[in-house]
Amino acid sequence: MKVKNIAVKSKSRTEFIDITSEIQKLIDNEGIKNGICFLFVPHTTAGITINEGADPSVQKDIQTLLTRLAPQDLNYLHREGNADAHIKSTIVGVDKFVFIEDGRLVLGTWQAIYFCEFDGPRHRRVVVKILSDD
Amino acid sequence: MKVKNIAVKSKSRTEFIDITSEIQKLIDNEGIKNGICFLFVPHTTAGITINEGADPSVQKDIQTLLTRLAPQDLNYLHREGNADAHIKSTIVGVDKFVFIEDGRLVLGTWQAIYFCEFDGPRHRRVVVKILSDD
Amino acid sequence: MKVKNIAVKSKSRTEFIDITSEIQKLIDNEGIKNGICFLFVPHTTAGITINEGADPSVQKDIQTLLTRLAPQDLNYLHREGNADAHIKSTIVGVDKFVFIEDGRLVLGTWQAIYFCEFDGPRHRRVVVKILSDD
């Protein structure tokens, strides 16, 4: 299939947005039974991660710790005030894949897929491409 | 091929387990000559990395440094005592791919594939899917 | 296609080298129209990331921050003086994929693909494999 875009709208500077059900919906719409779903974030101050979907405090802890590692106000060379967001993007990464079996994303019990905003609020997107086995 | 599971059993809270030969065995059994091997960890307090396989002190140094970055006893919101493990999982990542050529994993001289346990000991698994060129 | 190697030559201990145009050239030469380009770094003291390609100070900030997180002179077990480089490799990662549409890499406006040297200067390589839709 051709690549598809999923629109994401963040409301804070730092925010994790659960996109699992949107991606599952896309798989349903495409009628994919088995394959691999590839996800790519075309931004340099955002990322994508797969982590705990049950307790929302986990995503908060991850965000807080990343800010501890890369504070916004260090003496950065980049003068746009978002060097920290670029760094978090490289640490977390912008690409991720998930298997598809019997029409469902193959995720662990506690896993959810998160778009990671590090320099919001902004209109963002996730680019998706699915390789089908069939 | 359908996804396969590789069972992993960790014995410590933090531990890197070399799964390279297990994955090579799977490729042998499937008779794959050329393609890509995709590896996915369906857990939120574990990860997967590819790093030095010769000197075991490297994996210890990585574990120690990650604990320095995300200590277990910070003032986390998540109350299960393993917020640090979730954070390490996001930093290291849960998905990884390796090429296959002439029936062998395409790894550098010093590279080995490690399952990264951050909240063991536990019974874990790695989900594997291989795309064959043929 | 079979895997191809892109040669990379670093000149400093820590350095990000923009390999976007080299990869685009490979796609042009192979005549790939639509698919996925998989990139793999077969080294344990280097990595690959996708980040800002416009302002060179961003890559400097990322390098500086990573060194702040993993300084070269900590009390590491690994005695070769490059434990920090191994750690950075695991944090940044050694595998990355980018979609191809209409013969072009699908990157965001500001994105460039960087080989990340953490223990140079050295002769390095990036292994590339492209899955074509056609």
Describe the protein's architecture and organization.
Three copies of one chain form a homotrimer. Chain A is α+β, with helices and mostly antiparallel strands and 134 residues long. Chain A has one domain (4-132): Jelly Rolls (Sandwich), CATH 2.60.120. Chain A contains three helices and eight strands; from the N terminus they run E-E-H-E-E-H-H-E-E-E-E. Chain A has helices at residues 20-30, 57-69, 83-92; strands spanning 4-9, 15-18, 35-40, 46-52, 95-101, 104-105, 111-117, 123-132. A five-stranded antiparallel beta sheet of chain A has the order 1-8-3-5-6, with helices on one face. A three-stranded antiparallel beta sheet of chain A has the order 2-7-4. Chain A is elongated. The model of chain A has no long low-confidence stretch (mean pLDDT 97). Chains in contact: A-B, A-C, B-C. Chain B binds chain C through residues 34, 36, 49-52, 55, 57-58, 60-62, 65-66, 69, 91-93, 96-99, 101, 106-111, 131, and chain C through 2-3, 38, 40-44, 69-70, 74, 76-80, 83, 86-87, 89-91, 93-95, 97, 127, 129, 131.
